[in-house]
Amino acid sequence: MGELLKLIGNTPSVRLKRLVELYGVDGELFLKLECFNPTGSLKDRVALWVVRRSLEEGLLKEGMSLLEATTGNTGISLAFVGALMGHRVVLVIPEEVGVNVKRTCELFGAQVIPSPGGNADMDVALRLARDILESEPGKFLFLDQYSHPSYVECSYRWLGPELCEQLGGEIDAFVDVYGSGSTFTGVARCLKERRPDAKAFLVEPAECPVVSKGMWGPHVVDGVSDGFIPDNLELDLVDGVVLVNTEEVIRVTRELAELEGIAAGPSSGANVAAALKLLKGGFARRVATIANDRYDRYFEHPLFGKARRGTSLGPKGPAPLESLKKLELLWRRERAPALVDEAL
Q1: Could you give the CA distance from residue 152 to residue 181 in angstroms, rounded to a whole number?
Q2: Which domains are assigned to the chain?
Q3: pLDDT, tens digit, for every residue of 124-176?
Q4: pTM for the whole thing?
């Protein structure tokens, strides 16, 4: 087994003083640098955990290939872990996802199969992955990050405790984007067990407000808000939803590099922008969030002035019916989640 796997996890958490000063908000903002993992993302931790658990449970047998649908980081990390642990990896990736992601997966030896659409079309990629699974029974282990319990378990038992211990358990609010929903669910559950009065806020692109408004659409925060409510997103843990728009995401991602020296991807900028909004609105005094990945897989992204391929950004229509049914229960709760939509 590769020595590099030992470098996964135990990433530092840092206080963002200069950004807090720039926006003139009261409180403290902490960022856990998951971009320090070997391939540069949070998903290294998840990929290692899920593959090990699959081996322990006898689900991943000799000669089987790992199969996953992904828009980026999960695919890169699975390709990396698969290469070091001796398992072939097959990834279904939407065709509009940047070439940097696909080439990196292929560099680690993974096979990339394109599916129609972009970031908000993961339902199409998932259907194709299931078709591949059914076409050759016994050949693939389909990990399905959107519903596999080990994805949540990783954040609940590893990432969440690590974050809480680094900050001494003194976290008023945790805020995070969601793709599979696993990181949010695992960390929020861990935090609330340790500190019941802590709050957990989801972050959504304003152009794809599935949880907050039941609408989906193309957006610039790659790897998150895939247009539906995944099974691994536990809505009962959601105390509020923070909306961030394209301009805010790109601006704060650049400021994070220029002022704090952290060159991260747009989902990290979305997280930090949302955390600043929570401090600005007085929702919390001590907020923690995550730098999910590095900047260097986004050279084709609007972050670097590149026009987004495909359709125009913004809501295009209602979320899938199954997701809308889940949302109806969420927003009818006796204490409905807060909606934070003020400009930053």
Answers
A1: 8
A2: 3-40+155-326 (3.40.50.1100), 43-142 (3.40.50.1100)
A3: 999 999 999 999 999 999 999 999 999 999 999 999 999 999 999 899 999 99
A4: 0.94
115 is annotated as an active-site residue: no
Cα dihedral across residues 248, 308, 36, 34: positive or negative:
positive
Question: Which of these is catalytic: 267, 268, 277, 326?
Answer: 267
Which single residue is written with the structure tokens 């403290």? 28
d(CA 287, CA 132): 42
Catalytic residue among 13, 32, 41, 43: 43
State the Cα–Cα distance between residues 155 and 187, nearest whole angstrom.
6
> What angle (nearest 5°) sits at the alpha carbon of residue 100, between those of residues 98 and 103?
115
224, HSE (Cβ side, Cα atoms, 13 Å): 33
131 C-beta neighbours (distance < 10 Å), count: 10
Between 45-49, 138-142, 300-304, 334-338, the lowest mean confidence (pLDDT) is in: 300-304
φ and ψ at 173, to 5 degrees? -150, 140
Cα separation values, 324 from 147, 159, 213, 315, 319, Å: 18, 30, 9, 15, 6
State pLDDT tens for residues 305-321. 765 554 456 667 888 88
Q: Quick check: is 139 catalytic?
A: no
pLDDT digits (tens, 9 = 90+) for 254-281: 999 999 999 999 999 999 999 999 999 9
